[in-house]
Write a structure and sequence with these properties.
Order of helices and strands: EHEEHHEHHHEHEHEEHEHEHEHHHEEEE
Number of domains: 2
Shape: globular
CATH architecture of the largest domain: 3-Layer(aba) Sandwich
Number of helices: 14
Low-confidence stretches: none
Distance between the termini: 24 Å
CATH class of the largest domain: Alpha Beta
Strand order of the largest sheet: 5-4-6-8-1-9-15-14-10-11
Length: 415
């Protein structure tokens, strides 16, 4: 069903991010166009050397050492992204009514890192619980990353995290849009974050599933759609957007990055891990309907593809089904550069494509040396950027465990 025309239009006015290959949108985009990977070797407890996407942002740019020690890596990522988004939006923060600001952060999981660290520390003292940190509970509650943002920025409006597995970055954006349209907030800081590489458990679990990427060259480990793909590269990162109602953004003369025009979220209702292409088709179709668009209106499809054999195959089948005959639709993938940033993935991958509205370039998928015929998609951009006559609409896929699918559509802003 097409949404009521009475709903206010919602736009993105600021982007704050940290990724394994860039700590701001300009650097991130340049590395996507230049084929620069951010994946490298990483040492983790009990497993030694693994392959991961690691962020190198300055934790003390927006936090004191004391605040960082008390909080979490996910909270630190969220604070960095939120403050960068506000700065990018050109907001006079001192004049913003903090009661009317909402913080909506998508996450895959939270608390595993802190629990593993406390257990390891306690074991050094004969399992004496007196050595368990009194900061543990506030560090591990599900709302932690969003809550840390409110404390760091003096925000007194609503905050919470949205647990949506690897669809969470998109879901954070959707929540921000909905809260703005409902009039519950005037500014939403929305998107997703991940600290996943700091828990050995996620590596061990993917390893046990046979889904952890391995490659002699870490930069080539994440290889969606390639015949030799063998699993996920676990990564950390974050991306939060400053989102506003269009009228408010225009009233303050804001630069508008993009307009959010459609979305959909649905469920496979089938399996804990294995995706279902039919439900992915339905999710994309529902997002198109919500935006009032046809498949041929889309210029770029940003794929979720994680570099797992079955996952990539299922999504490729879904994309082919939705966009069959739409010759002007081009397809790419960002995880080939940065690995899977879990709860941040949807938001980060969308960000990497937003500059296409102005430079008209589709960043390529890298590390595809031999395309799997089951993953062949019309206009899949591989190796080098593709310049288009125009870019008006981007469709961003993001899917997750327990069968959650999400799709967000953004538009080049026009009055």
């Amino acid at each position: 069903m097409v949404p009521s025309l009475s709903l206010p239009r919602v736009v993105i006015t600021g982007v704050g991010l940290t990724s394994p290959n860039g700590n701001d949108l300009e650097t991130f985009r340049r590395n996507l166009l230049d084929g620069v990977s951010g994946v490298r070797p990483f040492e983790t407890r009990h497993m030694g050397r693994v392959i991961a996407g690691v962020c190198d942002y300055d934790e003390q740019k927006h936090q004191t050492k004391k605040a960082r020690r008390r909080g979490t890596r996910a909270g630190s990522v969220a604070i960095y992204c939120a403050k960068e988004a506000v700065a990018d939006a050109g907001l006079d923060w001192a004049q913003v009514d903090k009661r009317r600001v909402g913080v909506f952060v998508g996450t895959t999981e939270h608390g595993n890192v802190e629990t593993e660290n406390e257990i390891a520390s306690m074991r050094e003292y004969g399992d004496d619980t007196r050595y368990w940190s009194h900061h543990h509970n506030p560090r591990t509650v599900a709302n932690n990353p969003a809550g840390e943002v409110t404390i760091a920025m003096g925000i007194t409006g609503p905050h919470y995290c949205l647990g949506a597995a690897c669809a969470a970055g998109n879901v954070g954006i959707v929540q921000g849009m909905q809260m703005l349209q409902l009039g519950m907030v005037d500014l939403a800081l929305a998107g997703g974050v991940s600290e996943s590489i700091h828990t050995f458990g996620i590596f061990a679990s993917f390893k046990a599933e046979g889904a952890l990427a391995e490659h002699a060259d870490p930069a080539k480990a994440s290889r969606p759609f390639d015949t030799q793909r063998n699993g996920i590269v676990v990564s950390e990162g974050g991306c939060l957007y400053a989102m506003e109602r269009l009228d408010d953004a225009l009233a303050r003369g804001a630069h508008i990055v993009a307009e959010v025009v459609g979305y959909a979220i649905n469920s496979d209702a089938q399996d804990f891990v294995l995706p279902l292409w039919e439900r992915q088709v339905e999710c994309m179709q529902a997002a198109l309907t919500h935006a009032g668009l046809k498949p041929s209106d889309i210029d770029i499809v940003s794929t979720h593809a994680t570099s797992t054999p079955l996952g990539d195959e299922q999504e490729s089948r879904a994309v082919r089904a939705v966009f069959e005959g739409a010759e002007g639709v081009f397809v790419n993938n960002t995880k080939s550069y940065i690995g899977h940033t879990m709860g941040a993935a949807g938001a980060l991958e969308l960000a990497g494509n937003l500059p296409s509205f102005t430079d008209r370039l589709v960043h390529p998928t890298i590390n595809v040396d031999a395309l799997d015929e089951k993953c062949a998609i019309n206009n899949l951009v591989i190796g080098t950027p593709r310049e288009l006559p125009k870019v008006d609409y981007i469709l961003n896929n993001s899917f997750g465990m327990l069968g959650i699918n999400s799709c967000v559509i953004v538009k080049r802003f026009e009055r």
